[in-house]
Design brief:
By secondary structure, this protein is of the alpha+beta class. The protein has 2 domains: 134 residues, no CATH class; 143 residues, Rieske Iron-sulfur Protein. Helix content is 35%, strand content 11%. The strands form 3 sheets. A 4-stranded antiparallel beta sheet has the order 1-2-3-4. It has a 4-stranded antiparallel beta sheet with strand order 5-6-7-8, with no helix packed on it. A two-stranded antiparallel sheet has the order 9-10. A hairpin with a 5-residue loop joins strand 7 and strand 8.
Length: 344
């Protein structure tokens, strides 16, 4: 810009209010010229890109197979085996999702049309809208090339067909055994006379060890010695033990002897989706689940006072043995875990 025009409002460098339409310092340059890609001009490059996309869809299918191998063919009885299983499940799921996502992106980048389009708005008319919608769908199908590229179509269909299966198997184990679901959660290792021991060390606990305001994580005695199914049993049997002033407990009929001098034991498994309840507020006597903030009132038999949980925490009846150690009177009187299971 010349020196004499610097800062001059009439130089034309800046659009001003009231300026006639179409008069701007820089005219609209419009859309840049379309530059064809290599796959648009070279059939061999297009075929190569098609094979690449199909290979990515196959990677997704292989990832799903790896997931199933880890989920069903890998043992999980020990911590080491569980880590190997989780590795297969994680890698399988990752490659299943990554293969589909990357394949679709590569398909769009190399094979689908990339020319710019401008569509004028039109009046809304029911019949015309239907016709226009059909034309749009036909254009999308035609431009995607899915009709004339059977390799892409078939591998994509295969990947999409098997990709949801891992989620289905995780959410529902497809177990045909008779004790599936709530029946499996109805029974734990707790039984008459089974001592309460500290988790994870396994040392027994005397009633005198539990002070008012404390919260102790316990498991049934003998759980650490299991050779098979230890983690599954622990997932059902973990318990929180706390002590209150007996006068603070609101006890319902039939539970008068379920506590010992204000010492109470409740399942740690939240009745919402099964997260571990691990936070105890001493002043309010509330137990809090950190996953979705379900809150249970310890004074009122762990009934729900806030959050999405729909059921109180199951109580474990306890007493002491001849040596003063805390023991269970029986198993839980109801299933532990999420309340969306049928409990009848």
């Amino acid at each position: 810009m010349s020196e004499q025009n610097y800062g001059n409002p009439d130089s034309g460098a800046v659009a001003r209010s009231g300026q006639p339409e179409g008069q701007f310092a820089i005219e609209n340059p419009g859309l840049p010229p379309h530059r064809p890609r290599l796959t648009d001009t070279d059939p061999k490059a297009a075929k190569r890109a098609e094979r690449q996309v199909s290979a990515l869809f196959l990677v997704s299918i292989i990832g799903t197979i790896v997931f199933f191998l880890g989920y069903f063919a890998t043992s999980n009885e020990t911590i080491g085996e569980l880590r190997v299983q989780n590795l297969f499940i994680g890698l399988g799921t990752a490659f299943a999702m990554l293969g589909i996502g990357t394949g679709i992106v590569q398909w769009a980048r190399t094979l689908m049309p990339d020319h710019e389009m401008i569509e004028e708005r039109h009046d809304i008319r029911t019949e015309e809208d239907r016709v226009i919608a059909e034309e749009i769908i036909e254009d999308v199908i035609e431009e995607s090339g899915i009709k004339r590229r059977p390799l892409l179509r078939n591998t994509l269909i295969g990947a999409l067909a098997v990709a949801p299966l891992p989620a289905i198997f995780i959410l529902r184990d497809l177990d045909n055994s008779e004790d599936y679901g709530v029946e499996r959660l109805r029974h734990t290792m707790w039984d008459t006379g089974v001592r309460l021991v500290r988790d994870p060390v396994g040392t027994p606990i005397k009633a005198s060890d539990i002070t008012i305001g404390s919260a102790v994580h316990v498991i049934p005695e003998g759980l650490n010695e299991l050779e098979h199914g230890k983690l599954n049993e622990k997932a059902k049997a973990v318990v929180l033990v706390m002590r209150l002033n007996p006068d603070q407990l609101n006890i319902s009929p039939g539970r008068e002897d379920w506590h010992y001098n204000g010492i109470v034991a409740y399942s740690k498994i939240c009745t919402h989706v099964g997260c571990p309840v691990a936070l105890y507020e001493q002043h309010t006597h509330h137990l809090l689940c950190p996953c979705h903030q379900s809150t249970f009132d310890l004074k009122d038999e762990c009934k729900v006072v806030f959050g999405p949980a729909g059921h109180a925490l199951p109580q474990l009846p306890i007493t002491v043995d001849s040596e003063g150690y805390l023991v269970a009177q029986s198993d839980f009187h109801e299933p532990v875990g999420p309340s969306y299971w049928e409990r009848g």
